[in-house]
Write a structure and sequence with these properties.
Number of domains of chain A: 1
Helix content of chain B: over 70%
CATH superfamily of chain B: Fumarate reductase/succinate dehydrogenase, transmembrane subunit
Low-confidence stretches of chain B: none
Structural class of chain A: mainly alpha
Distance between the termini of chain A: 55 Å
Strand content of chain A: under 5%
Shape of chain B: extended
Shape of chain A: elongated
Oligomer: heterodimer
Low-confidence stretches of chain A: none
Strand content of chain B: under 5%
Mean pLDDT of chain B: 90
Number of domains of chain B: 1
Number of helices of chain A: 4
Number of helices of chain B: 5
Radius of gyration of chain B: 19 Å
Chain lengths: ~120, ~130
């Protein structure tokens, strides 16, 4: 019983470690695209609501934004979890903070996707 | 199983070791990472304004082109460059590369980060006519 729990925990930490790497490579790619397309091609361009809505009529930008949202949230919040686990020894507190971070991540992802859908569909 | 000694113990140990290149890199990675998470939430909050009122969104975007926010952008850029380049360094070690040149690689990448921030500062300053 004790061993099963231990195995499950170590398997979970492996996958979290692995996806921290996957999301970091994804972030480098998507963030470069985000910065080049929005700020480097035309640095003097004013970004306002109208130009944003026009930009989001292109599916490539919508996909890039969704992936940026997901990768950044996972990478950031899992990073916070790593910091918490390094400094917080109590298993109970760790579990509570993990759950809070998970709920925050899912909620903010849904919120971000809704804002994006609003900008795409009602633009 | 390792005995847990709590927050003050580890903080003291980390601070004492922070002059070592590896610990310094580790702390820098943490601090920049946490700052970028804070920025992520602020960034999303601002974009969400479009949900509430389009005019508010446009006004806020104009505010963000003021010198103060442009300097903050450069601070963010520095943080992202440091975190990203050091992150690549960490993954190289995961793959077993450069493991005997960890310190040299860190300082080399930090030189790259500093140069890129200087170039970005020059680009912003030139575009805004600060000199």
């Amino acid at each position: 019983m004790q061993q099963t729990v231990h195995l499950k925990a170590s398997r979970r930490s492996f996958w979290l470690w692995f996806f921290q790497r996957v999301s970091s490579v994804g972030l480098i790619v998507v963030l470069l695209f985000h910065m080049i397309a929005l700020h480097y091609i035309d640095p003097s361009a004013e970004i306002d609501l109208l130009s944003t809505k026009i930009r989001l009529q292109n599916l490539v930008f919508v996909l890039a934004d969704i992936f940026l949202l997901g990768f950044a949230l996972f990478h950031g919040l899992n990073g916070v979890r790593n910091v918490v686990y390094d400094y917080w020894p109590k298993p109970g507190t760790r579990k509570i903070i993990s759950s809070i971070l998970l709920v925050v991540g899912i909620a903010v992802f849904i919120w971000g996707a809704l804002v994006l859908a609003y900008l795409v569909l009602l633009g | 199983m390792e005995k847990h000694r709590g927050f003050p113990y580890y903080t003291k140990r980390v601070l004492r070791a922070s002059l070592e290149t590896g610990t310094f890199a580790h702390l820098l990675h943490r601090i920049t990472g946490l700052l970028i998470v804070v920025y992520l939430f602020l960034h999303m909050g601002v974009i969400s304004l479009a949900f509430i009122n389009g005019q508010t969104f446009d006004d806020v975007m104009v505010t963000f082109s003021s010198p103060f926010f442009l300097v903050m952008d450069l601070v963010l850029f520095a943080g992202v460059m440091i975190h990203g380049l050091n992150g690549i360094r960490i993954m190289l070690f995961d793959m077993g590369l450069f493991t005997r040149k960890q310190k040299e690689l860190f300082w080399g990448l930090m030189v790259v980060a500093i140069v890129s921030v200087l170039i970005a500062t020059w680009l912003v300053a030139t575009a805004k006519g600060w000199w």
